[in-house]
């Protein structure tokens, strides 16, 4: 990591206004530990809100394409909403679905929307990583979160505006996927700037629970809003991620140099005593530079990690996008009773194990 001047010239980073206000009130700068805690909380909430907005689609699918009148599992994330959504089967708006998704090819159209979203998300992730090496990560993350909130709400606005064009929903999801792609590269880079190698494994293990927390909260919010209309299942998470994005803009310090704090001396000494081996031949250990696509694949461990993550994501996103839809369209009463039993009797344990073992 270069000097403060180099960091500012490279990324244009400045001290966030919220940090300046806090220091003005306190009469002094934040400590390194306080700044680390602030970074952890903000990045955790940031990526949890990203996943919360992704989860809404899987909950609403059964309303957009109700192939059966059995809507008993629309509220599966929490028993708190069993009574509120009990009348879903008698709600004609939920029974009739929403064109064009309530036709014979409705499931196919929903799958195409998911494919378009994830395709643009994957492509955007590649460019977001390069962009994050060259611009202020706080600004990039803020734009990504506000844009995600706007286009998540725009999907739900199709209900209020009585839009039935498939290409409207397809386009909205593709743009949302593009904004979503800014999230992961940005939050990982910021956390990496603040936590050294000595504790990064422990911190990342705990911090990575944001994925499951986001999925759980997204399911709860989307299910709770269904009784007001499926549009609110998109609008509320969209507004929430935009608000968190505003907090990121005001308070997130992307690295210690931006806020003028120094790492604890004992941590510095610990890492200096270690052996630094360059991962890429021909690269000095001086000022950090952006790494190209081919160069990144040459870094030891990148290829096997990428393959492992590919198969993990393959399974995770299958459940993320299609499990609630599949269960709500299953005619097996035993399956319904089983899931209701799990949600009512073991909800807390289920959520806890999801955070601990699925992160």
UniProtKB/TrEMBL annotation:
Principal location class: membrane
Entry's transmembrane regions: 115-132, 139-161, 167-195, 207-226, 232-252, 302-323
Matches recorded under SUPFAM superfamilies: MFS general substrate transporter
UniProt keyword annotation of S-adenosyl-L-methionine present: no
Domain Major facilitator superfamily (MFS) profile: 41-359
InterPro entries per the UniProt record, alphabetical: MFS, MFS_dom, MFS_trans_sf, Sugar_P_transporter
Topology in the lipid bilayer: Multi-pass membrane protein
Family to which this protein belongs: Belongs to the major facilitator superfamily. Organophosphate:Pi antiporter (OPA) (TC 2.A.1.4) family.
Protein name: Major facilitator superfamily (MFS) profile domain-containing protein
């Amino acid at each position: 990591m270069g000097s403060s001047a180099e960091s500012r010239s490279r990324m244009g980073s400045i001290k966030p206004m919220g940090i300046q206000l806090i220091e003005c009130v306190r009469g002094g700068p934040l400590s390194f530990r306080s700044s680390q805690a602030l970074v952890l909380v903000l990045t955790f909430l940031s990526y949890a809100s990203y996943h919360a907005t992704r989860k809404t689609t899987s909950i609403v699918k059964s309303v957009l394409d109700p192939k059966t009148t059995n809507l008993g599992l629309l509220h599966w994330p929490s028993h708190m909403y069993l009574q509120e959504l009990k009348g879903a089967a008698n709600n004609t708006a939920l029974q009739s679905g929403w064109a064009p998704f309530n036709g014979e090819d409705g499931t196919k159209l929903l799958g195409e929307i998911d494919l378009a979203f994830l395709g643009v998300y994957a492509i955007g992730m590649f460019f977001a990583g390069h962009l994050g090496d060259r611009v202020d990560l706080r600004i990039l993350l803020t734009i990504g979160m506000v844009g995600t909130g706007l286009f998540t709400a725009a999907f739900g606005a199709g209900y209020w505006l009585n839009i039935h064009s498939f290409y409207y929903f397809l386009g909205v999801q593709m743009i949302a996927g593009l904004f979503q792609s800014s999230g992961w590269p940005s939050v990982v880079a910021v956390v990496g700037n603040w936590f050294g190698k000595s504790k990064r494994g422990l911190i990342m293990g705990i911090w990575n629970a944001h994925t499951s927390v986001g999925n759980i909260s997204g399911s709860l919010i989307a299910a709770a809003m269904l009784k007001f209309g499926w549009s609110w299942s998109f609008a509320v998470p969209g507004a929430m991620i935009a608000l968190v994005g505003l907090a990121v803009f005001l308070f997130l310090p992307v690295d210690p140099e931006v806020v003028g704090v120094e790492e604890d001396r004992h941590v510095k000494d610990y890492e200096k005593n270690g052996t630094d081996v360059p991962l890429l031949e021909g690269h000095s250990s001086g000022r950090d530079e952006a790494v190209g696509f081919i160069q990144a694949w040459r870094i030891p461990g990148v290829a096997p990690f990428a393959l492992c993550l590919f198969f993990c994501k393959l399974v995770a996103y299958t459940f993320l996008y299609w499990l609630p839809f599949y269960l709500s369209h299953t005619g097996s009463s035993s399956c319904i009773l089983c899931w209701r039993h799990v949600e009512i009797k073991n909800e807390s344990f289920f959520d806890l194990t999801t955070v601990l073992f699925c992160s």
